[in-house]
Amino acid sequence: MTQASAFELLASADTVAPDHDVATRMCQQEWGLPEQKQAWVVSSPPLGAKWTYARVNLSRHEAPTFLNILGLPFHPPARNERPSGYAFLPEIAAAQGLRPARNHATVVASRDLDSVAQRLHEAGVRFRYDPPDENLAIARIWVGFTEGMEDSYDPAADAGLRLEVIPYEAVQQPRTAMPPDETRTVPGTGIRIAARTLLMRNLDTRISTLESVFEWRPQSDHIAANGTRRVRFSFANPRSAIIELVDPARDSVESDFLEEWGEGPFSIRLEVPDVASVQDRLQSCDAPWMWLPPAGPGEHSRLLRHPEWELGTGFEFTPSE
Of 18, 56, 82, 160, which residue is the least packed, with the fewest Cβ within 10 Å? Predict the structure, then answer.
């Protein structure tokens, strides 16, 4: 682990919705999510769940972070009827209540899961290690959970991020360098997922937790003129989406959401070639949207598609640099 980037990649920005197909169709109609290959779709009939490791851009060089659209039933089958590997996904979602933005985890990739487990053990942090099984061929570390209390999460373990750590090789990132002429030439509205934002208070405590447990230090820590504070955590892969912890100013759309729904996920920020065309699509679909100020110095204003239960997240759109 490096001092700046504790992990290689934000493997996916997740959204938990009641119906996978409805959420996927909304993304396709409202802002142009490309058609996805069937090989990227996973279903678990015994669990009643379905999800897609969706590509907003078909180039993994350009857009290494997936959009994981996860559909989970509101009334899942009994635990003894569920498949291994996914047994507690419904409880993870249900624990977040009826908030319009939910995730199953903040999924990060590491080149050395054993060292992550050792670090957590030495720090006395609660975690669960799931070995490979017949449904999932990879090991996973769930931070804040433990054996025997799989549906009980301790946010003090990882600053409320709900980290799931997976092996870097599982994301199948291309090994070769990206050809110069490949940049932004692939089909699809999205260029890449740029950030996963979470709304939180007490950011100093959260920074301290991530530094002490993972030696993961912020890439930037900025307070805007209106008082909104944004702390960004980056990854070793420079094209990875970042994690952005936001303590919003009062009387803002983000603050209103935080006050009503509590701390947790808010939006997934995408870089797109043409923000105006996304705005036109949202208007034609009668989707709720508004403009937000830039997230950081020298950046562009953000077009927000408001969080909604059927989508499981908000979406922000900014132009590519």
Answer: 18
